[in-house]
Amino acid sequence: MRGGGLLVAGTTSDAGKSVVTAGICRWLVRQGVKVAPFKGQNMSLNSFVTREGAEIGRAQAMQAQAARVEPTALMNPVLLKPGSDRSSQVVLMGKPVGELSARGYHGGRQQALLGTVVECLEELRATHDAVICEGAGSPAEINLRRNDIVNMGIARAARFPVVVVGDIDRGGVFAQFFGTTALLAPEDQALVAGYLVNKFRGDVTLLEPGLDMLYDLTGRRTFGVLPYAHGLGIDEEDGLRVSLRGAVRESVVAPPVGEDVLRVAVCAVPLMSNFTDVDALAAEPGVVVRFVDRPEELVDADLVVVPGTRGTVKALAWLRERGLADALLRRAADGRPVLGICGGFQVLGEHIEDDVESRAGHVDGLGLLPVRVRFAPEKTLARPAGEALGERVEGYEIHHGVADVRGGEPFLDGCRVGAVWGTHWHGSLESDGFRRAFLREVAAAAGRRFVPAPDTSFGALREEQLDRLGDLVEEHADTDALLKLIESGAPSGLPFIAPGAPGAPA
């Protein structure tokens, strides 16, 4: 099968492309297939650092885990990290290469990257039996098709078959499937092999007449109907999604081990990045995690987390405008726990010198930690390891800010003053022993009779969820047909069902 592949496209953003790609990867690797994930271009503020020091989307790192392979820059050669509604930092092969406006990127720069994207895909194909590609948004974004390097552009370059995923929970899935296909140029339509229905609730026999009618209209089959699955704590791109034990905006699912639950409030700062840091907290029995944007929502919180952000100065201004900054100052004065991670750590310091990200120059921080931050043009990308609270800790760093720590008690690469902690390390709470030690400190400072579960393994829970995704594909999709697509490509003779998209390349 060497070099086979498939593109998982979607009718919309958040249709389920990331999780379906991960599910197919896990199903394939359980069949003994050496598989790799791939996304030519990703737009996300949730990123990860590979062992070679490359920054890629967290979704591709998660898919690599599903495939049981080490994530590399080849799996996500282009990453766009939005800094505003109109511009993004461009990360190429894991390293930042500059800021571009949306017009500048889509106006020509994007097409220039197609060669790099195809080379990365071909390198993966040469070393794996199969490569499962994830698309972005919708392949029917006809205004962007000419310079597309992630949907039909890459499918056509690689001659990969395409399966289109639709979220039936939103409604209108048949119109989405038909319209998506009909808007494509003939050469693109020839690669669209069929469809996957995602997030179905109810009796599938009631859906089957519609699937038959869809086949009559398009000449393309539906390869499966995946049921709605609750509690999938899987890294996606930018939506606030469910945690490993339940929705992050809902009450705790697993009962506490001790007498009390522990309430965690996460400040939903602008351009929030790597909010997946709190997934490990939500995985703990008896921990309730919610995202907040009002000061009154901090009143009953035992721990407040100020997360990472792509706009530290903007986040600081937002905290002040909302009254959350004053609420954080009151918490610190009362000895109530606060944790700042990456940009959140920088916000808690004395001042920031930023001539790189916001170009705001000198900005006063909240002054809760004896730290001064200077933004450097070079981005720090690292996979640190060390000890804190008597436990082994691993994490990863993604930041332009360089912290000058001038006091306090050492805490990872940052510091602690009273019940206020700060660090640049993302992912540290996934280290089980450290997480439990940290939560014990938080519970003591908050006066809660909360006891961390002695046997919660975040890594094991993540593996269970990836296996659930593999099970969904194995049990509810036509895996024989999918395997044939991966090995042999799209069937020949698929009908053309409507005029192609205006201006699409022939």
TrEMBL record:
Q: Where is the active site?
A: 342 (nucleophile), 426
Q: What region holds the CobB/CobQ-like glutamine amidotransferase domain?
A: 263-432
**Family, per the entry?**
Belongs to the CobB/CobQ family. CobQ subfamily.
Keywords of the record? Cobalamin biosynthesis, Glutamine amidotransferase
- The name this protein carries in UniProt is Cobyric acid synthase
Q: Enumerate the spans annotated as CobQ/CobB/MinD/ParA nucleotide binding domain.
A: 7-238
Gene name, please? cobQ
Indicate the secretion signal residues.
none
